[in-house]
Q: What sequence folds into this?
Protein backbone atom coordinates (compact mmCIF):
# COMPACT_ATOMS: atom_id res chain seq x y z
CA UNK A 1 0.00 0.00 0.00
CA UNK A 2 2.78 2.43 0.90
CA UNK A 3 4.59 1.53 -2.33
CA UNK A 4 1.46 2.34 -4.39
CA UNK A 5 1.20 5.73 -2.70
CA UNK A 6 4.88 6.44 -3.43
CA UNK A 7 4.41 5.51 -7.09
CA UNK A 8 1.39 7.83 -7.36
CA UNK A 9 3.26 10.66 -5.66
CA UNK A 10 6.22 10.18 -7.99
CA UNK A 11 3.92 10.17 -11.05
CA UNK A 12 2.32 13.42 -9.85
CA UNK A 13 5.71 15.05 -9.36
CA UNK A 14 6.85 13.97 -12.82
CA UNK A 15 3.65 15.20 -14.47
CA UNK A 16 3.78 18.58 -12.72
CA UNK A 17 7.44 18.99 -13.72
CA UNK A 18 6.65 17.94 -17.30
CA UNK A 19 3.82 20.48 -17.60
CA UNK A 20 5.89 23.29 -16.10
CA UNK A 21 9.01 22.67 -18.18
CA UNK A 22 7.20 22.11 -21.49
CA UNK A 23 5.22 25.31 -20.90
CA UNK A 24 8.45 27.19 -20.19
CA UNK A 25 10.75 25.85 -22.88
CA UNK A 26 8.85 23.45 -25.14
CA UNK A 27 9.15 19.70 -25.41
CA UNK A 28 12.17 19.80 -27.72
CA UNK A 29 14.25 21.54 -25.03
CA UNK A 30 13.02 19.25 -22.26
CA UNK A 31 15.76 17.06 -20.80
CA UNK A 32 15.46 14.21 -18.36
CA UNK A 33 18.00 16.02 -16.18
CA UNK A 34 15.81 19.13 -15.97
CA UNK A 35 12.73 16.99 -15.43
CA UNK A 36 14.16 15.03 -12.50
CA UNK A 37 15.58 18.20 -10.98
CA UNK A 38 12.21 19.95 -11.17
CA UNK A 39 10.36 16.86 -9.90
CA UNK A 40 12.90 16.43 -7.11
CA UNK A 41 13.42 12.77 -7.87
CA UNK A 42 16.55 10.90 -8.85
CA UNK A 43 17.29 9.93 -12.41
CA UNK A 44 16.98 6.23 -11.64
CA UNK A 45 13.43 6.74 -10.37
CA UNK A 46 12.49 8.40 -13.66
CA UNK A 47 13.92 5.46 -15.61
CA UNK A 48 11.91 3.00 -13.50
CA UNK A 49 8.79 4.62 -14.96
CA UNK A 50 9.84 5.76 -18.47
CA UNK A 51 12.45 4.98 -21.12
CA UNK A 52 13.00 8.62 -22.05
CA UNK A 53 11.08 11.86 -22.59
CA UNK A 54 9.45 10.44 -25.75
CA UNK A 55 8.11 7.47 -23.81
CA UNK A 56 6.79 9.92 -21.20
CA UNK A 57 4.87 12.07 -23.71
CA UNK A 58 3.56 8.97 -25.48
CA UNK A 59 2.22 7.55 -22.21
CA UNK A 60 0.52 10.85 -21.36
CA UNK A 61 -1.04 10.99 -24.82
CA UNK A 62 -2.21 7.39 -24.61
CA UNK A 63 -3.67 7.94 -21.15
CA UNK A 64 -5.70 10.94 -22.29
CA UNK A 65 -6.78 9.27 -25.53
CA UNK A 66 -7.86 6.09 -23.71
CA UNK A 67 -10.01 8.17 -21.38
CA UNK A 68 -11.57 9.98 -24.35
CA UNK A 69 -12.21 6.68 -26.12
CA UNK A 70 -13.77 5.29 -22.94
CA UNK A 71 -16.07 8.31 -22.69
CA UNK A 72 -17.13 7.91 -26.33
CA UNK A 73 -17.88 4.23 -25.73
CA UNK A 74 -19.83 4.75 -22.48
CA UNK A 75 -21.93 7.78 -23.41
CA UNK A 76 -24.23 8.40 -26.35
CA UNK A 77 -23.76 11.12 -28.91
CA UNK A 78 -25.76 14.25 -28.04
CA UNK A 79 -29.10 14.23 -29.78
CA UNK A 80 -31.08 17.30 -30.81
CA UNK A 81 -33.52 16.45 -27.97
CA UNK A 82 -30.67 16.44 -25.45
CA UNK A 83 -29.51 19.79 -26.74
CA UNK A 84 -33.00 21.36 -26.54
CA UNK A 85 -33.55 19.99 -23.03
CA UNK A 86 -30.05 20.85 -21.76
CA UNK A 87 -29.31 17.23 -20.92
CA UNK A 88 -25.69 16.55 -20.18
CA UNK A 89 -25.51 12.77 -20.16
CA UNK A 90 -23.73 12.55 -23.51
CA UNK A 91 -20.23 11.97 -24.84
CA UNK A 92 -19.30 15.56 -25.59
CA UNK A 93 -20.31 16.95 -22.22
CA UNK A 94 -18.42 14.12 -20.51
CA UNK A 95 -15.43 14.90 -22.75
CA UNK A 96 -15.56 18.54 -21.62
CA UNK A 97 -15.70 17.46 -17.97
CA UNK A 98 -12.73 15.13 -18.37
CA UNK A 99 -10.58 17.62 -20.27
CA UNK A 100 -11.38 20.30 -17.70
CA UNK A 101 -10.11 17.99 -14.95
CA UNK A 102 -6.91 17.38 -16.97
CA UNK A 103 -6.67 20.84 -18.52
CA UNK A 104 -3.00 21.58 -17.83
CA UNK A 105 -1.83 18.29 -19.30
CA UNK A 106 -4.33 18.48 -22.19
CA UNK A 107 -3.21 21.99 -23.16
CA UNK A 108 0.50 21.21 -22.99
CA UNK A 109 -0.01 18.11 -25.14
CA UNK A 110 -2.26 19.89 -27.64
CA UNK A 111 0.19 22.79 -28.02
CA UNK A 112 3.28 20.62 -28.37
CA UNK A 113 4.34 20.08 -31.99
CA UNK A 114 5.95 16.82 -30.84
CA UNK A 115 2.62 15.42 -29.69
CA UNK A 116 0.33 13.34 -31.89
CA UNK A 117 -2.67 13.83 -29.61
CA UNK A 118 -4.52 16.22 -31.92
CA UNK A 119 -4.31 13.90 -34.91
CA UNK A 120 -5.51 10.94 -32.84
CA UNK A 121 -8.20 12.94 -31.02
CA UNK A 122 -9.60 14.07 -34.37
CA UNK A 123 -10.00 10.44 -35.40
CA UNK A 124 -11.85 9.68 -32.16
CA UNK A 125 -14.11 12.69 -32.63
CA UNK A 126 -14.93 11.64 -36.18
CA UNK A 127 -15.86 8.17 -34.94
CA UNK A 128 -18.62 9.63 -32.81
CA UNK A 129 -19.85 12.28 -35.21
CA UNK A 130 -19.10 10.35 -38.39
CA UNK A 131 -21.31 10.45 -41.33
CA UNK A 132 -21.26 11.88 -44.75
CA UNK A 133 -22.35 15.25 -45.87
CA UNK A 134 -25.38 15.78 -48.02
CA UNK A 135 -23.45 18.56 -49.74
CA UNK A 136 -20.66 16.34 -51.12
CA UNK A 137 -20.83 18.17 -54.42
CA UNK A 138 -19.93 21.42 -52.62
CA UNK A 139 -17.79 20.14 -49.72
CA UNK A 140 -16.10 16.74 -50.09
CA UNK A 141 -16.46 14.48 -47.05
CA UNK A 142 -12.75 14.60 -46.17
CA UNK A 143 -12.85 18.41 -46.10
CA UNK A 144 -16.08 18.41 -44.08
CA UNK A 145 -14.54 15.98 -41.58
CA UNK A 146 -11.43 18.14 -41.24
CA UNK A 147 -13.44 21.33 -40.75
CA UNK A 148 -15.62 19.63 -38.14
CA UNK A 149 -12.90 17.84 -36.16
CA UNK A 150 -10.40 20.72 -36.27
CA UNK A 151 -13.13 23.15 -35.23
CA UNK A 152 -13.89 21.04 -32.15
CA UNK A 153 -10.18 20.75 -31.28
CA UNK A 154 -9.67 24.50 -31.74
CA UNK A 155 -12.67 25.27 -29.55
CA UNK A 156 -11.44 22.97 -26.78
CA UNK A 157 -7.90 24.35 -26.91
CA UNK A 158 -9.14 27.94 -26.86
CA UNK A 159 -11.45 27.19 -23.94
CA UNK A 160 -8.82 25.42 -21.84
CA UNK A 161 -6.15 28.03 -22.60
CA UNK A 162 -8.10 30.95 -21.16
CA UNK A 163 -6.81 32.74 -18.06
CA UNK A 164 -10.17 32.16 -16.41
CA UNK A 165 -11.37 28.81 -17.72
CA UNK A 166 -15.14 28.50 -17.92
CA UNK A 167 -16.79 25.51 -16.28
CA UNK A 168 -17.37 22.46 -18.47
CA UNK A 169 -21.12 23.18 -18.43
CA UNK A 170 -20.67 26.79 -19.57
CA UNK A 171 -18.14 25.84 -22.26
CA UNK A 172 -20.35 22.98 -23.45
CA UNK A 173 -23.35 25.30 -23.78
CA UNK A 174 -21.27 27.78 -25.79
CA UNK A 175 -20.07 24.89 -27.93
CA UNK A 176 -23.63 23.69 -28.57
CA UNK A 177 -24.85 27.17 -29.43
CA UNK A 178 -21.94 27.68 -31.82
CA UNK A 179 -22.67 24.43 -33.66
CA UNK A 180 -26.11 25.67 -34.66
CA UNK A 181 -24.83 28.92 -36.18
CA UNK A 182 -23.11 29.62 -39.46
CA UNK A 183 -19.82 31.53 -39.45
CA UNK A 184 -21.72 34.58 -40.72
CA UNK A 185 -24.13 34.47 -37.80
CA UNK A 186 -21.31 33.90 -35.31
CA UNK A 187 -19.58 37.09 -36.41
CA UNK A 188 -22.61 39.39 -36.51
CA UNK A 189 -22.96 42.06 -33.85
A:
Amino acid sequence: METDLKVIQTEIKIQKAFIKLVNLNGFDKLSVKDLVTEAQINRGTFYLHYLDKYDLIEKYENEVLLQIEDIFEKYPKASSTDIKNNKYNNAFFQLFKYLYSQRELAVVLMKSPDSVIIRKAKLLILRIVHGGTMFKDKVPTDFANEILSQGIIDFILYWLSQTHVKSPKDAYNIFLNSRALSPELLTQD
Q: What stands out?
A: The longest helix spans residues 2-25. The two ends are 59 Å apart (CA to CA). The chain is about 70% helix and 0% strand.
